[in-house]
Amino acid sequence: MLSKVRTSALDALADVRDGAIVMVGGFGNAGMPMELVDALIEQGSRDLTIVSNNAGNGTTGLAALLAAGRVRKVICSFPRQTDSFVFDELYRAGKVELELVPQGNLVERIRAAGAGIGGFFTPTGYGTPLAEGKESRVIDGRGYILEYPIHADVALIKGRLADRWGNMVFRKTARNFGPIMASAAKVSVAQVEEIVELGALDPEAIALPGIFVSRVVAVGKPAARSAA
């Protein structure tokens, strides 16, 4: 019978290539797949484009990946906050590129990729520097800009439980970007606390069907980490 379970996070990411576009779920640390990001650092791929809500916190997770010199470009909504000094230093030194995308546009661009939508018009960003170089149109008297979907080679997401077919449930807001990122990537890799038997998950609670999950690895209940 089909099983998407991998023995380790490193095994699940063994084929990530240099130059890959990698989506990373999480809203700050909520839903951040720390163990998968750690494995990506160990795996060694370089020149990555990272798509995420923010550009890392403290010195762990995405910040550690950036500090390791493995990221060429970041596409995100919130590149700076009080503890995002790693990205800030790299960006000021010209060592990493940034594409700033308003959060609603970021979500919709990822969702559009998973839904097979070729592009969409949005008023967000119209008339601002974020609209420079983009097609614009006035619809019913309101200005819009054309945004294109963001596709990825790999998506790294974090859930609470999964079965061996990859059906997943999440813990509250840790769900955030996970489902849409999984649908927008060629390969989606999920870390969960526990892998349960088929039929153990309430079908009404499954937020991400296994058809969108390529690989799943159980990491146990992660210990609390300090971002500093």
From TrEMBL:
PROSITE patterns: COA_TRANSF_1 (PS01273). One of its GO terms (molecular function) is CoA-transferase activity. Keywords: Transferase. Signal peptide: none annotated. It comes from the Bacteria. InterPro entries: 3-oxoacid_CoA-transf_A (IPR012792), CoA_trans_fam_I (IPR004165), CoA_transf_BS (IPR004163), NagB/RpiA_transferase-like (IPR037171). It holds the Pfam family CoA_trans. Belongs to the 3-oxoacid CoA-transferase subunit A family. PANTHER family: ACETATE COA-TRANSFERASE SUBUNIT ALPHA, KETOACID-COENZYME A TRANSFERASE. This is 3-oxoadipate CoA-transferase alpha subunit. It comes from Nitrospirillum amazonense.
